[in-house]
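INTERNAL AUDIT FORM
Audit reference: QA-55
Scope: verify that the stored structure record matches its stored sequence.
Auditor: D.O.
Record contents follow.
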Amino acid sequence: MAGSPDRWLTAACAALALSFGLLGACVAVPPETRIPAGAAENARPAAVVRSGTVAAGQPGDAAVDALRAAVLADAAALWQRSDPTALQVIHEAATWSDGSLGCPMPGQMYTQALVPGWRLVVSDGARELVYHASRRGYWIQCPAGRARAPLSGPVTR
C-alpha cells in the first residue's frame, strides 16, 4: 500500500475493525500525542532516583575515593548542607547479585550477573543515607524499603 505510514495504519485498522464489526474501536491518534519510537511500552512516571557515575580508572574500576566524594556531594545537596566534609562516610566492598546493585526498582529488569562494588553509608550524626555502587563507577542512593544486602562470603564469577 503506497502512502504515509499513518495512512497505511489507518487503513489497516479500519479493515480489521470492519472484519470484527468494531468500527468505533479505531481512533486516529494525532502525531503530537504518540509515544516516541524507542519509548517503553508500559512507561510509568519515574520515581526520583538519585544516581550518578564517576570515571573509571585504568583497569576499568572506579576509585572508591571518587565514589565517596560523589555520594558525599549528593548527600550534602539532599540535606542542604553547604559543607560536605562535615558528613561521615563509611564504605565496604560488596558483591551485588544482579545489575540492580541491590536496589531494584519495581517493574524493571536487570542483568543477571554478579556485580562487584561497594556499599556506602553517609551520616550527619542524626540520619543516614545508603548508597550502592559498582566498580565501574555507577552509584545509586537506595531507600531503606528497596535496599537489599550484598552477597556474603566468598563469591566467584
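Auditor finding: record pair retrieved intact. The two ends are 53 Å apart (CA to CA).
Action required: none
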